Amino acid sequence: MVDVELRAKRDALEYLWRQGLSGQTLLHRHSQLIDDYLVSCFSNCPEAGEGISLVALGGYGRKELFPYSDIDLLLLHTPEAENRLGAVSQALFYPLWDAGLEVGHGVRTPDACLADARQDFFFQVALLDARHLAGSPQLFTTMHQAFHRELIAGHRRDFLQNMMQHRNERHQRYGRHSYQLEPHIKESRGGFRDIQAMLWVSHALFGLQEMDNIEEAGLISIQEKETFIQARDFLIKIRNRLHYLSGRKNDQLFFEYQEEMAKAFRYSDTQGTLGVERFMQDIYRHLQTIATTTDLFFAHVDETLGSPRANQIEQTLEPGITVRQERIHLTDQALIEKRPHLLMRLFAQAGKTGLEIHHRSRKTVTANLHLVDDRLRHSKRMAKAFLDILENAKDVLAVLSVMLDTGLLTAYLPEFTPIHALAQHDVYHVFTVDRHLLQTVAELKKLSLSKTPFAGVESPHVLALAALLHDIGKGHHEEHARRGGELAAGIARRLGLTEAETSCLSFLVEKHLFLSVTALRRDLEDEAFLRQCAEQIQSPERLAMLYLLSIADAKATGPTAWSEWKGALLLEISLKIAHLLERQDLVLPDKSQGAGWMLEQVRALLGKETPVDYGILPEEYLLSFPPAEVAHHLKLRLGLKNENQAIIEAADHPLFWSVLIITHDSTGLLAKICGTLALHGLNVVRAQIFTWEDGTVVDELNVRPAAEQTYAEQDWRALGEDLNLALKNRLGLSHRLVDKFRTALRTPSQKNVQTAPRVVIDNKSSEQYTIIEVFAHDRPGLLYEITRTLADFEINIHRARISSDGDQVVDVFYTLDGFATKINSPTFQEEISNALLHIAESETGTGAKLQW
Amino acid sequence: MKKIEAIIKPFKLDEVKDALNDMGIKGMTISEVKGYGRQKGHKEIYRGAEYIVDFIPKVKIEIIVEAAMVEAVVNRIRETANTGKIGDGKIFVLPVEEVIRVRTGETGKEAI
Description:
Structural class of chain A: alpha+beta
Number of helices of chain A: 38
Largest sheet of chain B: 4 strands, antiparallel
Oligomer: heterodimer
Helix content of chain B: 10-25%
Radius of gyration of chain B: 17 Å
Strand content of chain A: 5-15%
Mean pLDDT of chain A: 86
Radius of gyration of chain A: 38 Å
Shape of chain A: elongated
């Protein structure tokens, strides 16, 4: 019945907690309650006499027992007492289990204790907190003294190394995405384990047990101690409530508890931020305080005690900044006061060398933040060093993280303060806003080193600054992107950016969601809309920056925000806008820049020996092929001898086969090509048609076989021969096609007719060309007939896009009439339209040629 | 009961979702899927570099409805998701043997 009593006592404790008993007092009361209970059990157990001692370990040993924490016990015994152990453990442990408590228990002799502690670092650390509860005191003292004598004294360096290694591993394990969103307040960085790690090391290495002693010994400063204790007390309250709320030993602040906890701690919603977000902001800030303090503590202790580093030579990087033992140091306080931009230079040097900043210099930075005044925020030297870090730092995330932790970043950019440690209460944003921004800069850096489309922008510093500032407007009730754009403009001016750079930065911040949102929500086939996008974005350079920023932002948000799927949509919209920006429809000052660059590449590839007149290559053509292909085309062109000859090259691709045709322009050329391809069982899915100034035609067609056959099975030689015959007008394509498809054409279409065939003639979308679009049901030879009809009208096709999806085709032709002008006459338009409709509507091909 | 699976263009999702909500269908499963169909992927060239995307991004909506509603729902999805262009997607209707709500154990119509 003892467990009933224990249960009642713990219920009473919970009741007291509800009445306001909190923090460390609760932990002590809880420990006391368990102590009393165990001591009375032990003394009531007749077998628990000579040679047995009950010891509390771990958190319980420290009298820091959280409501549902494990109760770690050790039953220490002499070998002679072994036969009585069964009865004793039954009397002690069973009631605890029955009361629903989690008990960690061990039964060992002192020798076994030491042996185990040698093997298992966790047990070794648990023994540090050992506290005698009941039974033989000598037995405990003997073990305890032997433990300190044999395992701790003389092994201080090993102990420290072990502790630091475990700490790093734990940070990695609990630093994953899921723990960012739902922090584990025991194991995460800045959690109770970090507090304990510091205390264990102080205890084991220096015999210091309390925070006060640690401060007095000079291991941490008074300010550090105060904020540290504040953070610890806050986290204790959180953990107590979390245990009671979960009704079990749960130390992870799961989503479902966050709101409830925020309410209980009286965080209410205000305009622009949720109570729960400010609650989590405080949690993250306190975790950060503990993380930073313990980082600095370990760096200090490691230096004092650790193995001396090889390189003892001091190297001066610039006045006031040196490298010593692979750490960067600020050396001259007087110089810092005279030239406060040294604070930023320190980080610039860290970025340049890739070395860490010494912990004492980090503290120096924090201690000198009062020097960062408005004048310094306008300093050109500061700005130069800062932008240099963003653009060039070897490990930009590490440098910026330390800058944030020391407080320099928020001092330099006060706009950062409201978003510092700001959480966003959703499952999407894994990091707090400030960390997300730093992460975005790092992702951007990775992109610039990878083979990403649009990589290599002209003003990387503007882009990097945009990454750092894109969410600066958050935590406010206004729309964050617009507010961010305004804030960013202010920062840019302060940093001394040019007007053009400022407006670009402001644009990037304000529109940082534009591409991602648009790619998902808008029809990417909608040319008019794409044109509007192009007008808004204005230049290929801005588009490239926006594209890279969108990817970096998504990647830095969390694992669900970025996928190959979204990447495909983003690439599609960006390339479509890019083509509009680079090509005919929008007149831009740097329009020919791309073509000029291409020409240089082609020239370099061909060398001076090849006699080529580069002037004949139209810009649009140059922008449509890689330089190597252009060079290849030019070489093939040299092999063309007479007028009616064509050079054909086919290539195998995973999704289609490509057919390259180089020949001289002639009327009805595309019709002859399409007809010959159809005759050889190939469907054209896309065609790019270019005519050089000298009348050379370069057509690249993507084709797919109508029947199941492989690339190798296709008779490419025969195709070439037939095409050359067709070009010499020696091949009757019409009757041959009818013959070939006789059976196919006789079978009436089984498919439901869903949309009537349609012809659209559009003079608005392109400044240069008349666009003719034909919507029809597909059938063999259709494309041949359409192109032949256009040839009959002496219409030249300059570009074509043929898309087919089963029985539906949409053919888009960019055309000019026989006088190389747009087709403007309404009567002519109608005539063309009717002729094409006649073909499109016919189920079996043009009646005139099909008399069967 | 039938399961309706609709593969549609991503930008049509909101419209289709709203249309279905208007019909009283609140619950659906939505996933991002990759289409490797007739439309296939495409090669793009920009400033001399080639980019190949070998799939088409699509969205899949899955809903369970009573047999009597199938026609209306299918028609509604068709109307809403149709742009008249290639790649508007497909709708599948599949028979469903049983539906069970995990929490309550309810089955059939009640569990939809």
